[in-house]
Design goal:
This protein is 0% helix and 54% strand. It has no helices and 11 strands.
Protein backbone atom coordinates (compact mmCIF):
# COMPACT_ATOMS: atom_id res chain seq x y z
CA UNK A 1 0.00 0.00 0.00
CA UNK A 2 1.48 3.33 -1.07
CA UNK A 3 1.47 6.08 1.53
CA UNK A 4 2.62 9.68 1.59
CA UNK A 5 3.38 11.12 5.03
CA UNK A 6 3.69 14.88 5.34
CA UNK A 7 5.29 16.92 8.08
CA UNK A 8 6.45 20.45 8.78
CA UNK A 9 3.28 22.51 8.75
CA UNK A 10 2.42 25.01 11.45
CA UNK A 11 1.82 28.61 12.39
CA UNK A 12 4.24 31.31 11.30
CA UNK A 13 4.21 35.08 11.06
CA UNK A 14 4.20 36.81 7.70
CA UNK A 15 7.72 37.01 6.35
CA UNK A 16 8.73 33.79 8.05
CA UNK A 17 9.69 30.40 6.68
CA UNK A 18 8.54 26.79 6.88
CA UNK A 19 9.71 23.59 5.25
CA UNK A 20 7.28 20.84 4.35
CA UNK A 21 8.43 17.27 3.89
CA UNK A 22 6.63 14.38 2.22
CA UNK A 23 7.99 10.85 2.55
CA UNK A 24 6.69 8.13 0.28
CA UNK A 25 6.57 4.52 1.35
CA UNK A 26 5.28 1.30 -0.09
CA UNK A 27 6.80 1.57 -3.55
CA UNK A 28 9.63 3.14 -5.51
CA UNK A 29 8.70 6.69 -6.40
CA UNK A 30 11.97 8.04 -7.72
CA UNK A 31 10.85 7.91 -11.34
CA UNK A 32 7.53 9.64 -10.84
CA UNK A 33 6.75 13.34 -10.67
CA UNK A 34 5.92 14.60 -7.21
CA UNK A 35 4.74 17.92 -5.91
CA UNK A 36 2.44 20.00 -3.79
CA UNK A 37 -1.06 21.33 -4.12
CA UNK A 38 -2.76 23.64 -1.66
CA UNK A 39 -6.30 24.56 -0.77
CA UNK A 40 -6.97 27.76 1.10
CA UNK A 41 -10.19 28.66 2.94
CA UNK A 42 -12.99 28.99 0.42
CA UNK A 43 -10.65 28.38 -2.49
CA UNK A 44 -10.14 25.63 -5.03
CA UNK A 45 -7.18 23.32 -4.79
CA UNK A 46 -4.27 24.65 -6.84
CA UNK A 47 -0.93 23.26 -7.94
CA UNK A 48 1.86 25.05 -6.09
CA UNK A 49 5.01 23.28 -7.26
CA UNK A 50 6.09 20.08 -8.95
CA UNK A 51 9.34 18.28 -9.67
CA UNK A 52 10.27 15.49 -12.04
CA UNK A 53 12.66 12.66 -11.27
CA UNK A 54 15.32 14.55 -13.20
CA UNK A 55 14.85 17.69 -11.16
CA UNK A 56 12.84 19.83 -13.57
CA UNK A 57 10.55 22.11 -11.60
CA UNK A 58 7.32 24.03 -11.96
CA UNK A 59 5.98 26.81 -9.75
CA UNK A 60 2.74 28.69 -9.81
CA UNK A 61 3.35 32.39 -10.38
CA UNK A 62 2.35 33.50 -6.88
CA UNK A 63 5.17 31.53 -5.22
CA UNK A 64 8.01 31.99 -7.70
CA UNK A 65 11.11 33.34 -6.00
CA UNK A 66 9.76 32.42 -2.54
CA UNK A 67 9.20 28.66 -2.61
CA UNK A 68 11.67 25.95 -3.59
CA UNK A 69 10.77 22.35 -4.31
CA UNK A 70 13.37 19.61 -4.10
CA UNK A 71 13.51 15.86 -3.79
CA UNK A 72 15.77 13.19 -2.38
CA UNK A 73 15.17 10.12 -4.54
CA UNK A 74 17.18 7.89 -2.23
CA UNK A 75 14.76 8.73 0.57
CA UNK A 76 11.64 8.92 -1.64
CA UNK A 77 11.05 12.34 -0.12
CA UNK A 78 10.01 15.67 -1.59
CA UNK A 79 10.42 19.00 0.19
CA UNK A 80 8.86 22.42 -0.12
CA UNK A 81 10.91 25.25 1.35
CA UNK A 82 8.64 28.25 1.82
CA UNK A 83 10.22 31.64 2.49
CA UNK A 84 8.80 35.14 2.76
CA UNK A 85 5.43 33.68 3.62
CA UNK A 86 2.33 35.79 3.13
CA UNK A 87 -1.08 35.56 4.74
CA UNK A 88 -2.48 34.41 1.41
CA UNK A 89 -0.26 31.32 1.62
CA UNK A 90 -2.47 30.07 4.44
CA UNK A 91 -3.83 26.72 3.27
CA UNK A 92 -3.76 22.99 3.64
CA UNK A 93 -0.83 21.71 1.59
CA UNK A 94 -1.14 18.30 -0.02
CA UNK A 95 1.76 16.28 -1.30
CA UNK A 96 1.16 14.05 -4.29
CA UNK A 97 2.90 11.53 -6.50
CA UNK A 98 1.78 10.94 -10.07
CA UNK A 99 2.06 7.25 -10.91
CA UNK A 100 -0.46 7.52 -13.69
CA UNK A 101 -3.01 7.83 -10.92
CA UNK A 102 -2.52 10.54 -8.32
CA UNK A 103 -1.78 9.48 -4.76
CA UNK A 104 -2.32 12.14 -2.09
CA UNK A 105 -0.87 12.80 1.29
CA UNK A 106 -3.11 13.57 4.25
CA UNK A 107 -2.45 17.31 4.16
CA UNK A 108 -0.36 19.71 6.26
CA UNK A 109 -1.85 22.87 7.69
CA UNK A 110 0.06 26.09 7.11
CA UNK A 111 -1.20 29.24 8.79
CA UNK A 112 0.48 32.57 8.18
CA UNK A 113 -0.49 35.34 10.57
CA UNK A 114 -0.14 39.06 9.93
Amino acid sequence: QVQLVESGGGLVQAGGSLRLSCAASGSIHSIFPMGWYRQGPGKQRELVAAITSGGNTYYTDSVKGRFTISRDNAKNTVYLQMNSLKTEDTATYYCYVNRGAIIWGQGAEVTVSS
